[in-house]
Specification:
It is a single chain. By secondary structure, the chain is an alpha/beta fold. The chain is 41% helix and 13% strand. The protein has 16 helices and ten strands. The strands form two sheets. It has a six-stranded mixed β-sheet with strand order 1-2-10-7-8-9, sandwiched between helices. A four-stranded parallel β-sheet has the order 5-4-3-6. The chain is globular. Bound molecules: ligand AN7. The site of ligand AN7 has 21 residues, from helix 4, helix 9 and helix 14.
Length: 379
């Protein structure tokens, strides 16, 4: 294959990842996702803010989970594991199922009964995972996974697996490469709290490094490509962690037992990376906030209608928070802001169709006149 062809984030970032020299890499060419500037949001343009959307929904299985999964599954396989297991609100199960299929090993996924989006369930089914539906939520599933892994030969690939967070930190590297610097603010949805922790690790490494790591990671060329000039991030962003109001343990300052939100991906009350996420927000002098389901869905629609970017409800939480904090002046005029859009909107078509309020125009024939009238009436 052409050496300049992108071959996935382990090849790209090997020198900053805990991957043994000669192990078999399990990859679907994840990573290298677009950083799209939001050009059409009034709230942003009025205040001279540069707001970028890191569209992680364009990873191979449609969410950021693939970044962690390539590293976790590569490691599991190199340790001789024949089966992986996770609890999931949907995206982790889709990603685990795909990477297990790629590796030729088994995936077991525990999902909350009736509370995962259809697209995610379809993915786990198609990739051949063994799907165990429990009468409980994600937090129950997580507890069970930890217990069962003590007694059965399965490797946990939830983000309590440190290889997951190592893979996910690469998103911060890509952002710094794209912007030529770290953003002032990084807005991110928080569920199990792994991703905010992973980003903080990435930004912190970049700030501490002399740029050498990143430069060395380019295995594609002899120094002519874009990657070789990766700048050093001398600053770190404030980390802003946003939750759904019904599933906002970080706002309560403690775990909660019955999380509820339309954004099923982040319907989590007992985040596993609690301490890391607290540290990320505290060290970066950022903050947590939470928003109602109505606000989150309105932002999902806004991004789809104004920017052409269709993300899932949980993902829209980051932009909901950013717009709120821009409006309130908490994010000052002139700032550079990155929002992570964690998953693709196609994951959850039911919610999209229900909330879009789009009336279909039905015509009871297939004639030019009728179609023309429908167009002229709606111009
Ligand atoms: C779209 O799939 O926890 O705070 O089991 O799917 O790192 O947990 C999903 C999480 C945000 C929250 N956006 O990230 C799972 C799962 C989307 C997600 C999050 C998730 P973390």
């Amino acid at each position: 294959m052409n050496k300049k062809h992108y071959t996935g984030l382990i090849d790209r970032y090997r020198s900053i990842l805990p991957i043994a020299e000669n192990c078999k890499v399990i990859s679907l060419c994840e990573g290298d996702t677009p950083l799209v500037q939001a050009n059409n949001l009034e709230q942003v343009n009025q205040r001279d803010i540069k707001l970028y959307l890191k569209f992680e929904g364009l990873n191979p299985t449609g969410s950021f989970k693939d970044r962690g999964m390539t590293v976790a599954v590569t490691q599991a396989v190199s340790e001789g594991s024949r089966a992986i297991i996770c609890a999931s609100t949907g995206n982790t199960s889709a990603s685990a199922a795909a990477y297990a299929a790629r590796a030729g090993i088994k995936a077991f996924v525990l999902i909350p009964d009736g509370k995962i989006a259809m697209g995610k369930l379809a993915q786990a089914m198609m990739h051949g995972a063994t799907i165990i539906q429990i009468c409980g939520n994600f937090d129950d599933g997580m507890r069970l996974v930890k217990e069962v892994a003590e007694e059965a030969p399965v490797s946990i690939v939830n983000s309590i697996n440190p290889y997951r967070l190592q893979g996910q930190k690469t998103a911060a590297y890509e952002i710094v490469e794209a912007l030529g610097r770290a953003p002032d603010f990084h807005c991110i949805p928080v569920g199990n709290a792994g991703n905010i922790s992973a980003h903080w690790t990435g930004y912190s490494e970049l700030a501490a490094s002399d740029g050498h790591n990143v430069t060395e990671a380019c295995g594609f060329c002899n120094g002519e490509c874009q990657f070789i000039s990766t700048p050093i991030a001398t600053t770190k962003p404030k980390m802003l962690g946003y939750q759904a109001a019904g599933a906002a343990p970080f706002m309560h300052g403690k775990a909660i037992d019955n999380p509820e939100t339309v954004a099923t991906a982040i319907r989590i009350g007992h985040p596993q990376s609690w301490d890391y996420a607290q540290a990320a927000v505290k060290e970066s002098t950022g903050w947590f906030n939470s928003f109602s389901d109505e606000q989150i869905l309105a932002t999902q629609k806004l991004l789809s209608a104004k920017e052409g970017i269709f993300c899932e409800p949980a993902s829209a939480t980051s932009v909901t928070g950013a717009l709120h904090d821009i409006e309130k002046g908490n994010i000052p005029n002139g700032s550079i802001v990155v929002c992570t859009l964690t998953g693709h909107g196609l994951k959850d078509p039911d919610i999209a169709i229900k909330q879009s309020n789009t009336e279909l125009i039905n015509i009871d024939d297939a004639q030019l006149d009728s179609v023309k009238r429908a167009i002229l009436d709606n111009l």
